Amino acid sequence: MKPLEFDDVAVRLGDRVIWSHATFEIEPASITAVLGPNGAGKSTLLKVVLGLIAPSEGALRVLGAAPARGNPRVGYMAQSRLADSLTSITARDYVGLGYDGRRFGWGRSPDKHAVVERALALTGVTSFADQPLGTLSGGQRQRVALAHAAVFQPDLLLLDEPLAGLDLAAQAEIVDLINLIRDTTGAAIIVVAHDLNPLASIVDCVLWIARRQVRCGKVDEVVNAAVLSELYGHPIEIFTTAHGRRVIVGLEEEFAHPHPHGHDHHDHVHEEPHAHLEEIYREETS
Predict the structure, then answer these.
(1) What DSSP letter does each residue of 97-109 carry, written as one string?
(2) What is the pLDDT of residue 85?
(3) What backbone phi and psi angles, to 5 degrees, belong to 41?
(4) Which domain holds residue 198?
(5) Quick check: 121 pLDDT over 60?
(6) How many domains does the chain have?
(7) Is 248 inside a domain boundary?
(8) What is the dihedral of CA 104, 53, 163, 113, to 10 degrees?
(9) What is the pLDDT of residues 15-35, one digit of tens each?
């Protein structure tokens, strides 16, 4: 069973086509990077998988079934996390919120303590688990957010801009952690990002969204001059440095001014009231 299958899927918000003709499959235990300019619909794609936005055309299956809100087999780390505002709560208690949301709405686990401790250990949070979130570094808080999203070891894990706002050293730590989660749990992981280079060592596939088009395949099948030139409608050149970093020439304007919080501009404008799972937890348990 494929974790994710898209068959000619299109999404419209109002009278605007976000993207269309999306046909691809995600393999089990794989890591897929979702790339593209601001406003292309990267976060929209995650919301479609989560059942928050219905496709206007085509069909998709998430872990063999139709997408549905609150699927306990799908983990989600949003761009704007509840951890950013609950600065006085401890890391352990914040991860426990992920357990509580699913326990009361979407299934029961016999031992909250064991489930939470396993998530803390997997993400390397145990040593600072009893510190308030407000005292942690950006990289540490991202680890906590990952523990929250992966608390039930989902089969499909969606990460929206997990590297945003981190320095290079912290980015490298989170990339290693994403790879560890994949290797330990066997989850298929989809990572929305603005730059492939930090993820290049762990990514199996790339899903690139631009000009209402979606391309998916192995890294070299998508991140090449021919495909990107077709996607953007003008010549693109790609150079590889001695250290293996890809330098893409021709997209300078696309990536020169990213949204300060990593949001896709158009996605943010059309965001639904229940765009984040923390809000769905409250809705389901009220």
Answers:
(1) HHHHHHHHHS---
(2) 64
(3) 110, 25
(4) 4-79+154-285
(5) yes
(6) 1
(7) yes
(8) 10
(9) 999 999 999 999 999 999 999
Residue 62, domain member (yes or no): yes
Q: Please name which of 36, 31, 4, 3 lies closest in space to residue 19, comparing C-alpha atoms.
A: 36
We report the CATH number of the domain holding residue 270 as 3.40.50.300
Q: How far apart are CA 63 and CA 157, in angstroms?
A: 11
User: Residues near 104 by Cβ (< 8 Å), separated by ≥ 6?
Assistant: 284, 285
Alpha-carbon span 40 to 18, nearest angstrom: 7
Written as six digits, the tokens of 80 are 């704007």
- Residue 93 contacts by C-beta under 8 Å, 6 or more apart in sequence? none
CA dist., res. 87 & res. 266, Å (int): 29
Euclidean distance between CA atoms 93 and 156, whole angstroms? 23
Task: Note the pTM of the prediction, 2 decimals.
Answer: 0.84
- Flag whether 98 is in a domain: no
Between 122 and 88, the higher pLDDT residue = 122
Where b means 16+ CB within 10 Å and e means fewer, 110-138 reads: eeeeebbbbbbebbbbeebbeeebeebee
